[in-house]
Specification:
- The structure is a single chain.
- The chain has 194 residues and is an alpha+beta fold.
- It has four helices and eight strands.
- The longest helix is centred in the middle third of the chain and has 20 residues.
- The chain is elongated and about 70 Å long.
């Protein structure tokens, strides 16, 4: 949430000078503990994709999973996305793309290898990509019957994923492509002899 302020005139209420609030902007943010299991029975299908029991107290759920103490905070990141449906659909597309990369059935194009640092683009995507590393999700244009997402990760890699899917199901049928838009390696400053 962001509060918006504007300059005030001196004659107005003293508490509103030199600026006064005039609005609020709310930006939806999301945190994926894990992707929802899609129901196969009619009763389970009534369960929403979000606000599942483990979402009631995210920190408590994380502490149980991580065997962490009360004073420890969940290190997971929150990210922006257009809405809940697209946050979840992008999460499924990402998980499917990462699984295909690991299996070798999907090759990212373009994806430059950084050979002088002994790293590959695929290795960097697998090392820095993943649900906990998402910083932002945006939609991009796609052909009919397909979906497209630009996913920004921390610390700076951005990928574009296209998959077969639609606005009806949060789960794409299969990933068509993954491309690297930005490829930032913070370790360069330590290793670059220049």
């Amino acid at each position: 949430m962001r509060l918006l302020y504007a300059p005030s005139r001196r004659g107005e209420k003293p508490e509103n000078w030199p600026i006064h609030p005039y609005g609020i902007e709310a930006i939806p943010t999301f945190h994926i503990v894990h992707l929802p299991k899609i129901a196969t029975s009619a009763e389970a299908a009534q369960r929403p994709l979000v606000d599942q029991p483990e979402c009631v107290d995210v920190d408590e759920h994380w502490r149980k999973r991580a065997d962490a103490g009360e004073e420890e905070d969940d290190p997971a990141e929150w990210f922006t996305a257009p809405d809940t449906f697209h946050a979840i659909q992008a999460g499924f597309a990402l998980e499917m793309a990462l699984a295909a990369l690991k299996a070798g059935s999907l090759k990212p194009e373009p994806c430059p290898d950084i050979e002088r640092f002994g790293r590959t683009c695929v290795g960097d995507i697998l090392g820095t990509g993943g649900l906990p590393r998402i910083y932002a999700v945006t939609r991009c244009p796609a052909e009919t019957g397909s979906i497209c997402y630009v996913i920004d990760f921390r610390p700076g890699t951005t990928v574009t994923i296209t998959a077969r899917g639609d606005e009806q199901s949060p789960i794409p049928s299969h990933v068509l492509s993954i491309a690297v838009a930005d490829f930032i390696m913070p370790e360069w400053t330590k290793q670059d002899p220049l």
